[in-house]
Amino acid sequence: GVLHEDLRLLLDTALPPKRKKVVLGVGDAKMGAAVLEELGVQCQTGGVVAELMRGIRLHFPALVRGLTAQSASKAQLGLGHSYSRAKVKFNVHRVDNMIIQSISLLDQLDKDINTFSMRVRSWYGYHFPELIKIVPENSMYCRVAKFIGNRRELSEESLEGLEEIVMDSAKAQAILEASRSSMGMDISPLDLINIESFSRRVISLSDYRKGLQEYLRSKMSQVAPSLSALIGEVVGARLISHAGSLTNLAKYPASTVQILGAEKALFRALKTRGNTPKYGLIFHSTFIGRAAAKNKGRISRYLANKCTIASRIDCFSEVPTSVFGDKLREQVEERLAFYETGEPPRKNLEVMKEAVVEANEVVAEVKRRQEKKEKKRKKREKRRLEALAAAAEELAENSVMETEENDVGAKKKKKKKKQQQPEESEAEPEPEENGVEEEEEEEPLPKKKRKVVVEPEEEEEEEKKKKKKKKKKAVAQD
């Protein structure tokens, strides 16, 4: 009934001073009453206002300057996306869709395993009909049939294996004695192979069912721990599946939760004006079975009330805990004892106060553990980043060292080349000079130059020869 401050400020600034004469169109009657009470402005509600609002939305780009039809459509699309995101749960640990699927699969597996086990019984019963009375349980019957195979091959040596399967030495001995005096017909090896193969598949299905039940238990402890602690995982999962989601179950009143699953009986009773059903899915809980016949309706009504409280706590609590479910279960136990012995139970206020104190302690502990995990995760992330940075630095240093070594090697090669070049230049002139001299010696000189070079020596020899000849002649003359 109190008008929001922002809306009051908007109306104060938008309306003219003489606002007593103004009639304001409001789509909601409660809002119109609040505006009239707070501001004294007459408000009109009804279908005309809704049509006007539709027309304004349709022609909004033409009425508002700067707003285009494309931007208006984008705004509508964004609003639709935000509304869809608000309806979707982003916490993957609290998704109830998996619970709905797993409980449906669990029910289907129960039907299929029963059907297949009956088929194994009727198939193997032609060979060993006495086994059905000794081992009535379906999955155990399939295991025993797979282990025995041909009953004529069963002996004292197989007694230990039979005891491990049936968990009873008397039953194992009875199976052995019945196999010796059985009235069943003989069976061919091919038929026996098919029976064993089918029994193996039924056993694998029953093992998978056990694993699925554990998975359902873990998911229920995460999504709806209070409801699981109160009424059990399977019944709580069936309630959530029948309601559609945990949020829908939390919205239901206790009277609806009480007969949830008995809609056909309810409508038939309403049609025939007979007695309405007292319980639906909650009949599978242990409380109603333990109550006396005259108290079944009373305890089912009380249990439905507590289931509604537990589902709302699970749906809207930030950190789900099973404390409230345990306390509510204690209340149901006390109410059962009250019906039987007359001992007055505790009041709901006292129990809820204790539950709130314990829940706060549990939530504080959970938050502390979450903080520790977050700190450890941050430390691991920091170490990982440091290791990556160190590895990157090492790679950079190695690359720098390699480039430096390459540069140094290149410089050394250049120096060696430079040193080799002068040595070669120093070593090369001698053969060049020798070669030039040899070439010069080998080349024939011109005649004039050769005469100039040779004439002095020949003249001296000729002069000496001439002198000798003159001396000889002079001596001969004498």
Structure explained in plain terms:
Belongs to the NOP5/NOP56 family. Pfam families: Nop (PF01798). This is Nucleolar protein 56. One of its GO terms (molecular function) is snoRNA binding. The chain is mostly helical and 478 residues long. Among the domains are: 1-65, no CATH class; 97-214, Helix Hairpins, CATH 1.10.287; 225-367, Nop domain (Serum Albumin, Chain A, Domain 1, Orthogonal Bundle), CATH 1.10.246.90. 76% of the residues lie in helices and 1% in strands. It is built from 22 helices and two strands. Strands 1-2 form a two-stranded parallel sheet. Strand 1 (23-25), helix 2 and strand 2 (42-44) form a beta-alpha-beta unit. Helix 12 packs parallel to helix 19. Residues 427-454 have low confidence and may be disordered.
Quick tags:
two-stranded parallel ribbon, Helix Hairpins, 478 residues, mainly alpha, Serum Albumin, Chain A, Domain 1, single chain
User: Shape from CA axes?
Assistant: flat
Question: Which strand order spans the largest sheet, edge to edge or round the barrel?
Answer: 1-2
The fourth-level CATH homologous superfamily of one domain is Nop domain
Q: List the uncertain runs.
A: 427-454
**DSSP helix fraction:** over 70%
Would you list the SSEs in sequence order as H and E? HEHEHHHHHHHHHHHHHHHHHHHH
- How far apart the termini lie comes to 182 Å
CATH topology of one domain: Serum Albumin, Chain A, Domain 1
Helix segment tally: 22
Q: What integer is the average pLDDT?
A: 81
Largest pleated sheet: 2 strands, parallel
CATH class wording of one domain: Mainly Alpha
The strand count comes to 2
* Fraction in beta strands: under 5%
Please state the second-level CATH architecture of one domain: Orthogonal Bundle
State the secondary-structure class. mainly alpha
Q: Radius of gyration, Cα only, in angstroms?
A: 54 Å
